[in-house]
Amino acid sequence: MAEPPAEFGLIARHFLPLAGPGALGLADDAALLDPPPGRQLVLAADAMVAGVHFLPNDPPETIGRKLLRVNLSDLAAMGAAPLGYLMTTALPRDLPPGWLEGFAAGLAEDQRRFGLSVLGGDTVSIPGPISLSLTILGSVAPGAALRRAGARPGDGLWVSGTIGDGALGLRVLQRRLPADAEGHLARRYRLPEPRLALGAALAGLARAAMDVSDGLVQDCGHLCRAAGCGAVIEAARLPLSPAAHALVMADPALLPLVLTGGDDYELLFAAPPGAGIEAAASAAGTRVTRIGEFTEGPAEVRVIDAAGAPMALPMGGWSHF
Amino acid sequence: MAEPPAEFGLIARHFLPLAGPGALGLADDAALLDPPPGRQLVLAADAMVAGVHFLPNDPPETIGRKLLRVNLSDLAAMGAAPLGYLMTTALPRDLPPGWLEGFAAGLAEDQRRFGLSVLGGDTVSIPGPISLSLTILGSVAPGAALRRAGARPGDGLWVSGTIGDGALGLRVLQRRLPADAEGHLARRYRLPEPRLALGAALAGLARAAMDVSDGLVQDCGHLCRAAGCGAVIEAARLPLSPAAHALVMADPALLPLVLTGGDDYELLFAAPPGAGIEAAASAAGTRVTRIGEFTEGPAEVRVIDAAGAPMALPMGGWSHF
């Protein structure tokens, strides 16, 4: 019979070194996993397409890592700990030399960093752009998962890290904005930081949580609709990185982009006053900022400026369709 | 704030009716699943791209069903029972009207038929062909999963159902072969039949198993390499549907396509003589055929004709690269 075709060589060379226990050497029809006893499973899936979710000329090292981190961010938003992942890659036949090596090397680095490994997947060809899909598995103590519903009027509205870096970083990479000297904004677009330690620490403290992927205002609207209440965001309280702060100072018209641009992958959450959020975040080593509060009334998000006046926003967030 | 964009409307309209318990209304960052106590999890993922795994003008009703069934076939090959699935869809903006309705309706039909539901996923846009990915979860009694390794010389080589229909059906749909009156071959290409009942019945009886996706000879080679033995396939014993039989009788040059064409999604397995395979298959309501046996020697697959003479095959199976 013929030799195994090139596809199996690709998988063996690049993906087999990423396989962990249960993956059965990526040589069976499926993976086997003993679920951790007494835990609930947490499952999420995200897709990324070249030219839509990452730039076609992004370094391949960061592309796999971004896909993994976007999914890890979903686990963080549920307060879950990672178990493993499955990934499918639809790749054009004319990938640049070294692309797969870089892609797999980036995944290997983040597997070590976040303590998980690949369980299985599929590699196929596509007559079009690179199209990736990743399903992540995590676990959480029964009933302890953070959920989107649960915010109440009077709860503080909190966010982790800094907001706007991803959206600004995309425009830096598109040469529509000047780069900062350290490359911070571009790095934040390419490598979001899943807030796993913070998510775990918020279980039992936060009343509702999600991660910011489509834009702060739009995602805050999801928390409001799930809770049946409103929210107000004080723009002056938004945590900005020094690089983002410099850009917004130079051009205040960028503030709406910070509020609605997306690609933040920070945790947005509701907590009652006195919940001990700052102590928990400090123990988790993650900066958090109270940027507003939930209010009585319809499920609307209002953004107010330093004088308390409402700000008009040109768009609600990112949509694919 | 702005209304939720169109993407959320798409998901709510078409995919929310498919969501089952644990999916949290597709409104959270992740799904929650209580793993069945005392069972191992079985996990597989497959991708499908328009123009590669299905024809761009295939009815949308069958496309989602094929993706689900290909994954269910992986569970069947492990002897596992389905629990649920996550799916990501990368869709061009110019989908024909009604495409998503049909796609979701097909999935709904097969969810009922196979007793599972969607747990989560992602819907994104792609400047290229439809690109789909599905991760399936199943469960199996601990240690009972069928594996690819384990065949021994002297074991019978068995296959379920009929072989070659998928590969012939693709050529019928491409108008490279005449259609059968009942449309059997095209239907088999579009809607493979996952052998879940047979897979479950083979646990404890078969020594090794996998599903035939890349071609009978190539996939048989996987069983041989995993076991470190050879195999011989008797071409005269191949189970052909009446429609496939008629085409091969009219043009014997099609026989290599039957042996190597792939898209069969039948179970290929090894069992020692006297294992009671026929009784188990009969109880599962699935036809099985002993098409050869495993042999001492190197991990090679030989195909012999009715006179015992070796047949030369032009290619080993389907490869993406």
Automatic annotation (TrEMBL), chains A, B:
It holds the Pfam family AIRS_C. Mg(2+) 3 binds at residues 29, 74, 211. Substrate binds at residues 53, 263, 318. ATP binds at residues 121-122, 148, 213. It catalyses: thiamine phosphate + ATP = thiamine diphosphate + ADP. One of its GO terms (molecular function) is thiamine-phosphate kinase activity. Coiled coil: none annotated. The keyword Magnesium applies. Catalyzes the ATP-dependent phosphorylation of thiamine-monophosphate (TMP) to form thiamine-pyrophosphate (TPP), the active form of vitamin B1. Reaction mechanism of ThiL seems to utilize a direct, inline transfer of the gamma-phosphate of ATP to TMP rather than a phosphorylated enzyme intermediate. This is Thiamine-monophosphate kinase. It comes from Belnapia arida. The gene is thiL.
